[in-house]
Structures are given as C-alpha cells and as structure tokens.
Amino acid sequence: MKTSGKALEFATLGVILMVTPAFASDVEFRLITKCSPELAHYPSPYSDKEILCVSSDVIMSDANIVKVKPGHTNYSSVVEFEFDDAAQRKVEKVTREHVGGQIALMSKGKLVTAAMISSTITGRILELNLPDEGRQSVLDVLQDRKLVK
User: Fold this and answer.
1) Residue 131 burial (CB count, 10 A)
2) Which residue, of 9, 14, 93, 98, is most buried by count of CB atoms within 10 Å of its CB?
3) Is the pTM of this model over 0.90?
4) In this structure, what DSSP letter does residue 47 have?
C-alpha cells in the first residue's frame, strides 16, 4: 500500500470530499503515534509493509531551526539540527515523555524518516540518520533559507 498521506473523507450532501492533512511548514518534527482514522498515515521509509501514523501536533518546524549541519558517520548520512530555545523546551518535554517512541521528520508533507527516541534531549541539537533521498530533500528546503552551514 503506497500513499503519501491518508486523505480524510467527509460526506456533505452526498458528495465525498478528499482532504489531505495540511502542513504549515516545509520541515516539521512530529510524533509517530497509534493509528486512528483522523491521523495521517504514511508508508514506513524502511518497510513497504508497515504504515506509520503521524500526530497532528508539531514539535518543531523549520521556523525553530537555527542551523543545519550535514555529515556522515561510518555507517550512514546524518543531519544535525540546532534549534531555538522555544523548541528546546518542547523537544525536551516530548522526548522525556516518549523515550522508546518515534519522532517523524516531515518535509513538504512527506515522511522522510522515523527515528527512535533513545533518550531525553536536553540540549539544542538533534542528530538524525537519514536515507540519502530524504536527506537531500530536507537539505534543499533548508538551504533555501540559508540554514545549512
């Protein structure tokens, strides 16, 4: 099942309207959560058979990102996100409450990656391993805003 986001159906006077969930920013971090009909559904970037549901609550967006630094480890491509103080408080709270859960990185309404929250993030830097295609999509968006250093 391939879909870029589950459209919601509304019946009005016998007409079915398809509404795709809106994204206010080009880059957003949101929680992966238990699926329900009102949430957006996305295929996992790691498995064609797994569907992930993304919360409508934005943890942080491109407006909160101060600097982005691409890099590599021995095993994968990484992107380091430095964010502002307002996002830091929210990131710390969300990661403390959801250790073991997943956080989604969205770019232009598409799920780029879903990262495991392994510990509480208390600073202002979040490092994610990203698939090359998704990594480039995120970097292109943020490059336009002159955030990539």
Assistant:
1) 14
2) 98
3) no
4) -
Q: Contact at 8 Å (CB) between 77 and 135?
A: yes
Tens place of pLDDT for every residue, the chain, 149 residues?
333 333 333 333 333 333 334 445 788 999 999 988 888 888 887 777 889 999 989 999 989 988 888 888 787 778 888 999 999 999 999 999 999 999 998 888 888 888 889 899 999 998 887 777 767 777 777 777 666 76
Q: Smallest Cα–Cα separation from 117: which of 106, 133, 107, 128?
A: 128
Spell out the domains of the chain, with CATH numbers in brackets: 8-144 (3.30.1360.200)
**Alpha-carbon distance 93 to 83, whole Å?**
15
Of 132, 131, 128, 134, nearest in space to 115 by CA = 128
Please answer whether residues 74 and 67 qualify as being in contact, where contact means their C-beta atoms are separated by less than 8 angstroms: no
SS3 readout for 132-145: HHHHHHHHHHHHHC
CA dist., res. 69 & res. 131, Å (int): 15
Rounded Cα–Cα distance for residues 83 and 65 (Å): 4
